[in-house]
Amino acid sequence: MNDKGKGYNPGYYGKKTMQKSAWLDANIKRWNSEDADIKRGGGKTLVFNSICFSRQIGVGALEIADHLSQIIDYRVVDREILELMAKDANLTEKAIAFFDERHPGKMSELFSMLISEKTFITSDYARQLVKTVTALANIEPTIFVGRGIQYILPRNRVLSVRFICSKEYRVDRLANLMDLTQSEAEKQLNVLDNEQHKFFQTVYQKNEASNDDFDLVINRDHITGVSQAAQIVACAYGEKFGSTES
Known about the structure:
Blueprint lengths: L19 H20 L10 E6 L5 H12 L2 E3 L1 H8 L2 H14 L3 H12 L6 H16 L2 E4 L12 E7 L2 H12 L3 H23 L11 E4 L6 H16 L5
Parallel strand pairs: 1-3, 1-4, 2-3, 4-5
Helix pairs in contact: 1-4, 2-9, 3-6, 4-6, 5-6, 7-8
């Protein structure tokens, strides 16, 4: 996916990562182990806050999320993981089962509340995505990247962050990452921007994200450092929720 001419995979920034299926397998095993601890009385049930990253394609949000996860020790769930789970009912049901073990009956309560509050939950895909996100967010502290998750989770339990930048910044970044010409990079970004626009129209009935939807907006034309951006988000999270402990 990441060789020249093969196409840009949103979120890629040159780091080798675990296959998404392997990531899910590892997390499912860990959830099973944690549930066993809870049943034996060796663990405790918590309610977690989340961080949601919304971004323009190519702005570098996943790299910032990975750096932030090292600062606050939260796991990162990106758009590929969300898509994989939202399209596989069995995977979502496993996550829901772990959630139900910790909060019996709570999933039905939360989903019923969301259905009544969120007018966009009309398609089967939207329902599956909402179930996936609700379960993941309540299993452990999470940084979500992409897919408009800030519109799903309760606003008072989320730090919602938007990353923006100029088209020139994104084109330059993609061209350097993928060893593309400026023209090739711009063409790929135009396709991906169009796909993202269609996704938000289809799932959330929104033409574009509004800055009013976010606690924090970071412009990477001016805040270029990955560590710098991650530290700003960590500080904002601490200021909103007090600490990284729920």
